[in-house]
Specification:
The complex is a heterodimer of chains A (about 210) and B (about 80). Chain A is mainly alpha-helical. Chain A has five helices and four strands. Chain A has one domain. The model of chain A is unreliable at about 1-5 (pLDDT under 50). Chain B has a single domain (about 5-70), classed as 434 Repressor (Amino-terminal Domain) (Orthogonal Bundle), CATH 1.10.260.40. In chain B, about 20% of the residues are buried. The chains are: A mainly alpha (about 210), B mainly alpha (about 80).
């Protein structure tokens, strides 16, 4: 490897086709996010009842039409979507925040990962800019996770109250609604960012080595 | 890591040593097992670090001491 020219590492063998695929996926995620935001905001601010997902603790027994001839059978569900005639102002605000921030975080993550792939293909894997892209994705997902956890609990409680139902144990609902997958992806991205920082340092130290 | 200007004070006398011995850079590269590009980097004082193994191989090939190959320029 030439020594004094900026040493470039490509730890994943990607070509232009792979990058185009990541662009397409990122574009799809962005379009999907925008559609999700518009739809949810329209639901929340529209005149009709607001659909709200309410997490269940697993103690509730529902009836599902899964028996012979569509007969009801006892069932349990992790969550249900209920229509709330009027959601309080604060809950609407929190739901709007979730409606905008969570899809936006997914969009930002998809764009960052597409740009990450482009930089890797161009041989600029271990650079400050590439590490920043991974860090931004990580932070975006953590923000999405926090907003999702908070909003699910708060809006779900507000929906229960608005419907006049019994209050659920907040702790049990929190545990039942804990979106572990998103957090694990964020942790994995954080680990990648850490590894890239080490790579940056190693590259800096070996530049100009003969 | 040492400051950049301190690294830049090290001068490699590879050009002079090769001329004295009538040897080309390509020939030295063959003898030493280092690419011509890397030797060129060293020759033009663009290297920022040299492996002991590279130094040893170059000195063996040129029949010189490390001090003959690398000298420290006075501070500007």
């Amino acid at each position: 490897m030439p020594a004094t020219e900026r040493q470039r590492f490509s730890f994943v063998e990607l070509d232009r086709t792979d990058v185009v695929v990541t662009y397409v996926v990122a574009a799809l995620v962005v379009v999907g996010s925008v559609v999700a935001v518009v739809r949810r905001v329209a639901e929340l601010l529209g005149a009709g009842p607001v659909p709200v997902r309410v997490e269940l603790t697993g103690d509730e027994t529902l009836r599902a039409p899964l028996g012979p001839g569509g007969a009801d059978v006892p069932a349990t569900a992790g969550s249900v979507v209920v229509e709330v005639p009027h959601l309080p102002g604060l809950a609407t605000g929190v739901a709007l925040l979730e409606a905008v921030l969570v899809p936006a975080a997914y969009g930002v993550t998809a764009v960052c990962l597409a740009l990450f792939c482009r930089r890797v293909v161009r041989g600029a894997a271990f650079t400050a800019g590439t590490t920043r892209l991974v860090l931004v994705s990580c932070v975006a997902l953590i923000v999405a996770w926090l907003v999702q956890v908070g909003a699910t609990t708060a809006v779900g409680d507000a929906a229960r109250a608005a419907l006049g139902g019994a209050e659920a144990d907040p702790g049990a609902v929190f545990v039942a609604s804990f979106p572990l997958g998103l957090l694990l992806v964020a942790i994995a991205l954080g680990a990648v960012a850490g590894a890239m920082r080490v790579g940056e340092r190693v590259q800096r130290e070996t530049e100009g080595l003969v | 890591m040492p400051p950049e200007e301190e690294v830049g004070r090290v001068h490699c006398r590879l050009d002079e040593l090769l001329e004295e011995r009538g040897m080309t850079l390509s020939r030295l590269a063959e003898l030493v097992g280092v690419t011509v590009v890397n030797l060129s980097v060293l020759k033009n004082d663009r290297a920022r670090a040299v492996r002991f193994s590279t130094l040893t191989a170059i000195c063996d090939a040129l029949g010189c001491e490390i001090g003959d190959l690398l000298v420290l320029r006075p501070r500007a």
